[in-house]
Design a protein that fits this description.
Two copies of one chain form a homodimer. By secondary structure, chain A is of the alpha+beta class. Chain A folds into two domains: 112 residues, 60s Ribosomal Protein L30, Chain: A (2-Layer Sandwich); 181 residues, Alpha-Beta Complex (Phosphoribosyl-aminoimidazole Synthetase, Chain A, domain 2), CATH 3.90.650.10. In chain A, 33% of the residues lie in helices and 25% in strands. In chain A, the strands form three sheets. Chain A has a six-stranded mixed beta sheet. The two termini of chain A are 16 Å apart. At the A-B interface, helix 1, strand 1, strand 2, strand 3 and helix 3 of A face helix 1, strand 1, strand 2, strand 3 and helix 3 of B.
């Protein structure tokens, strides 16, 4: 998602995606457009492949991050797509557009940051492309191996619990503080910055759940409610998300207070979380919690799937909460 | 290669590539950085994966091509890397950076052009990413299957003939005419434009040679002499290329005359040819010629590999020809 610009231009990403899925339908679910990864059967094996592009001044600003952090963060976001299908990363490719003003040291720092993060998750830098460009961009391709059953968005069933890993709201709160120039006013800024700069692709967590009966999964890249609606739509169900149960990262409420914003905007609509949203049958919940607890990762039930369409956020008394009424505009914070 | 800008910036692509290959060496040749594709062993199979990025005003100008042609051409360039390792294309992924000014119709035309060309070579559009960007870019990822032995750059042997498919010089001559605004003065402009807009990735040609003993291959993307030097370096040999034997496309000499340039610059240094340069043992030449002739593709012997280093272009009397002395500057035409 674009974390910065709220201008849409004359093309619309959601509409374009709908057209793409309709025009180029995959042979089977998960083997084409509209899932987190494409799954490529390869003999007895199943490879997962995903691409994820970041663009300067759309996904980050140069003064916010070191070039090593830009590289690391781009790889983290891409590997998160492999986590969403429960795949073990193997290789990473970088295609980078380099503006003339960038020094060789900057470029090397970017590559080293990317390669070091890939190695942390057992993936090797295997290739890519470098081109001149008026703006810095990096398209990261990640290839992984699915050892068990791949998780798809479309496997959710009526009555499944929706559960999210970790704590959310941090990346959007961090970006809002950066854009407002208020980072030094926030006592928990280091926590928020860390979540924005170094989100954890939930590879280990996903693989630890590979033996369980997880019905569906998606990684949170474009905002909880939008991603929940995608999982629900792929499963032909309706997602109900309970606002009071959302696991809010420390510092998000302070940031919202400083900026005069409702923290729910950061938590329910903020992009680039890279946490996993899972559809879990109720009888698998305690096992899933136990597996993740061993990795120091919490799992929070935030809602469920039911018959219907769409995704609804509800308050403690069961009333719908409309993010737009809280001041949220698509593509950024108001 | 950048076909337009001759500004280098403070990073240098060749130096960067040298650093990358040294810093992130592949486990085996062809399995990492520095070949046309990365080869991924996958059970009994071998997948080839490559990425190729194009950027507006670096690789093309908007007024030169329709958006469908931009998409088609980007896929052609990427598939050419699969031809260089003798792989059958299977899937294509598009990561596109879209400026706000682009209409939904433009974007769809781009995708349709890309998907139609992929389908022409039996590859399916399988996924990708769309992001906002201040400049249009597209990173194409192609995945293919190697059925026989993959061709590598490093397999050349002393005494091998160097042979090139098709006819060369067209794309660089076309760009030079476009940049000079002289297209209407060139009687063979349609031929040159076609070669620039719709280069043929030599997939069918490569696959038709799969049973032969081709020692090494590279696709011509950055200029014949630069690519010949890469094949030679990977094979620890020296490439000798004979200028009088180069198969020059019709119209290249006329374009050079109009522009007051030596046609050898277009032919020996022009990028984005997407023809194949093959290192062939002399006893396989006639078979290779016969296989390609059946596909309507000529194969021209232009030189050989010998002990030594580097790549040298020589004239009819065996004297070295220096492109710089003809007015060639790296990154464009003078």
């Amino acid at each position: 998602m674009r974390v910065l610009s709220s201008t849409q231009g004359s093309w619309n990403e959601a509409e374009l995606l709908t057209w793409l899925v309709k025009s180029y339908p995959p042979a089977r679910p998960g083997e084409g457009i509209g899932d987190d990864c494409a799954l490529l059967p390869c003999g007895d094996l199943l490879l997962a492949l995903t691409t994820d592009a970041v663009v300067e001044d759309v996904h980050f600003r140069r003064q916010w991050l070191s070039w090593a952090e830009v590289g690391s963060r781009a790889v983290r976001g891409c590997l998160s797509d492999l986590a969403a299908v429960c795949a073990q990363p193997e290789g990473v490719f970088l295609s980078v557009g380099l503006p003339a003003g960038l020094s060789a040291e900057d470029v090397k720092a970017f590559v080293e940051g990317a390669a070091a993060t890939a190695a942390e998750f057992s993936a090797q830098l295997k290739g890519g492309d470098t081109v001149a460009s008026s703006v810095f961009f990096a398209d990261v391709v990640a290839v992984g191996r699915v050892t068990g059953q791949p998780w798809l968005r479309s496997g959710g069933r009526e009555g499944d619990l929706l559960a999210v890993t970790g704590q959310i709201g941090g990346p959007a709160a961090a970006v809002a503080l950066l854009e407002a120039g208020r980072t030094q006013d926030c006592s928990l800024w280091p926590v928020l910055r860390e979540r924005f700069v170094s989100p954890t692709p939930r590879i280990r967590e996903a693989l630890s759940l590979a033996e369980l009966d997880i019905h569906a999964a998606i990684d949170l890249s474009d905002g909880l409610m939008l991603d929940a609606s995608r999982l629900a739509a792929a499963s032909s169900l309706r997602a109900v998300v309970e606002a009071p149960h959302l696991p809010v990262l420390d510092g998000v409420e302070e940031a919202a207070r400083l900026l005069g914003t409702d923290p729910l905007i950061f938590v329910a609509a903020g992009g680039e979380e890279y946490e996993l949203l899972l559809a879990i049958p109720p009888n698998e919940l305690s096992s899933a919690e136990a597996h993740l607890a061993r990795l120091g990762c919490r799992l929070t039930v935030i809602g469920h799937l039911e018959a219907g369409t769409g995704a609804e956020l509800v308050s403690a008394d069961g009333q719908p909460v409309h993010l737009a009424s809280l001041g949220w505009v698509h593509g950024g914070q108001s």
